[in-house]
Amino acid sequence: MSAGFVPPPYPYERLGEVSALAEKHDGGAVDLSIGTPCDPTPPEVIAALSAGGAARGYPPSIGTPAFRGAAADWIERRLGASVDPDTEVAACVGSKEFVASTPQYLKLRDPSRDTVLYPAISYPTYAMGATLAGCRAVAYRTLDEIDEADAERALCVWVNSPGNPTGELHDLAAAADWGRARGVPVFSDECYAEFTWAGGPTTILRSGPAGVIAVHSLSKRDNFAGARIGFYAGDAELVHYLREVRKHAGLLAAGPVQAAAVIALGDDAHVELQRARYLGRLRRLQQLLAAAGYPVELPDGAFYLWAPAPGGDAWAAARDLAQRAGIVVSPGEFYGPQSTGYFRVAAVQPDERIELAASRVGA
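Above: the chain's sequence. Below: its structure in token form.
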């Protein structure tokens, strides 16, 4: 029998050696590799999870009217765009699930196309979603550099702003124009929108919903990653198609989680507090890295530092930082072959843990 698909090692599971070096420090490792929130979820959001009524029956796959309405209100209030909660918004089980599963559904919708376009330096799930769908994963540096032959075969193009891992901001209106001109749906991953440092949060939906889908998550905004809840919004025809096929796949965000998400989306005060926390940690980590001999610029968005590795050897830098500061960082190759000369540092540890690491390098 011929060999089938062999899943590659999950990137962050390759950090065993680096983690072991960091653990040797008194006080243990300070893990800055995975972007998992460490701060408290608003207590009223947690309290809503225990409401029994929402857990009794099956929740609607597309999201409750209350959840879809809260998502639409948030998009208008915080991002400056309008969508119809009845026809242009739907729930997903966290944005990563949506990123990984959507290409297979788009392939069913249009079997004549077989290509997923995604940023060359990016979160690895864009490429993996294409692989899981049996599609071609084609990376691009800029939209203008995409070969027209690849565009003609494209099921979709992913954009990510603020970007992970670089924190770069991209011209989302230009991305919408590029896709509309070629009949390629544009999927805009905007899960870090609230953490935009150079200007305010925005969305591709400001250019209208036609031909675009914005994807959002409460994981980062609300420190709600373990609850697995997000939503997608945009082109009514695309939203309808994805709603219907996802129903058949049994993709349901839990009822109590949807109820809690309504409360979270309606409260901006805790987000402002979280913004201040992340920005403060980014600045402190910038100082830590400088003291260790790794100068880095602050990002325009998101809560990562994207640092150049001396000599282009990110694994050597990761081992050095583990040995000297006890921190665990992510080598750039996790984010594509064009990233090997960099490493990512996530501002996701409490301040006291970051101070512990800083003290180790005299910062």
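DSSP finds 14 helices and twelve strands in the chain.
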